[in-house]
Design a protein that fits this description.
By secondary structure, the protein is of the alpha/beta class. It has 12 helices and 12 strands. α6 links the parallel β7 (169-173) and β8.
């Protein structure tokens, strides 16, 4: 089977710059893919985050440019693991084509609903922002840390905890921006708070240390009551597999848009039953739909997925509108 292949790059401006320990993110860039055959269309998205561990946008564009206008299934499933965002984009488009091919004879079942986590801005802005997200139905919130000085962030943290409803859950995301000493301080504060107040408010601390300090994160995970999650350390499927085989049994935060092959990701998650949280890479509606499909299938521990990112861009559009506006 041969598919007609087209692609168009995109640039999307964040409504508000996103601040992380990696720096400030103002523009999201990626590539929309379109596969077609006999009236059927499959949409895919390549949404690299090179500083997070995927290929660069330039590498992805070079790969697309060197492909012919007709490609096969073999082409799609031979994309190397050095291009994980490309693997996700092409396989997602192919899966949509296959899904459309089978729709005629299948009755659509009820889609499983999953909870989503809302993303708070770093710093004091979170103190004003959380209530808006709460009123929109978010009961799990993520707050970026490792951006301001430790003393400042701990003060804001205490104020945020005091203001949140008792039924809320809070995730802290350091993006690998803490030193080992700072990580110990954060985890000590979190443990003492949970013990003193009998709170289950804090769900986990995400990627406290840089990727290079994996062994230290293994030790931290054994030393504190507060759960830890890996994010940057498991950006791609190869990293995820490596971390698992090196002994990580905490939480895995998976961004499907840069993880790599959806087929291989399914196989790994089904085999090892990992505690996974699926998260957005600030992709468009095309990549988001494919990523949420994986999250729905593989979120076996019932944790809220990290796709509460709609307030960071203009309203999501249909694939056709996105394509025609590029």
């Amino acid at each position: 089977m041969r598919y007609q292949f087209e692609f168009r790059p995109y640039r999307r401006q964040f409504k508000h710059p996103l601040q992380t320990s990696h720096g400030t993110w103002t523009v999201r860039e990626g590539i929309i893919l379109r596969l077609s055959d006999e009236g059927r269309v499959g949409w895919g998205e390549i949404a690299p985050i090179s500083w997070f561990g995927s290929e660069t946008l330039e590498q992805a564009l070079n790969f697309c440019h060197q492909l012919p206008t007709e490609i096969t299934r073999e082409t799609i499933f031979s994309i190397p693991s050095t291009l994980p965002a490309c693997q996700f984009g092409f396989e997602s488009a192919w899966e949509e084509m296959e899904k459309r091919a089978g729709e005629a004879g299948e009755a659509g079942g009820e889609k499983r609903r999953i909870r989503s986590c809302g993303l708070l801005s770093a710093g004091e802005a979170a103190l004003e922002q959380w209530e808006s997200l709460w009123n929109r139905g978010y009961r799990t919130l993520k707050w970026k840390i490792g951006v301001a000085p430790l003393r400042v962030e701990l003060e804001i943290f205490h104020r945020l905890v005091q203001s949140l409803p008792a039924s809320a859950q809070l995730r802290l995301d350091a993006n690998g921006g803490l030193s080992l000493e700072e990580a110990h301080k954060w985890l000590g504060v979190c443990d003492r708070l949970a013990q003193a107040e009998s709170l289950t408010l804090l769900e986990f601390l995400e990627q406290p240390l840089p990727v290079t300090q994996f062994d230290a994160m293994l030790e931290l995970n054994e030393c504190y009551l507060t759960q830890l999650a890996l994010d940057e350390s498991v950006a791609t499927l190869e990293q995820l597999e490596s971390s698992y085989y090196q002994g990580w049994r905490g939480i895995f935060v998976i961004k499907p848009c840069i993880a790599g092959s959806p087929l291989r990701l399914r196989q790994f998650c089904h085999k090892h039953k990992i505690d996974a949280v699926f998260s957005s890479g600030f992709e468009t509606a095309i990549g988001r739909e494919a990523a949420l499909q994986l999250a729905t299938e593989l979120s076996i521990y019932g944790r809220a997925v990290g796709f509460g990112t709609d307030c960071w861009f203009d309203e999501y559009e249909t694939p056709e509108l996105l394509w025609n506006n590029l």
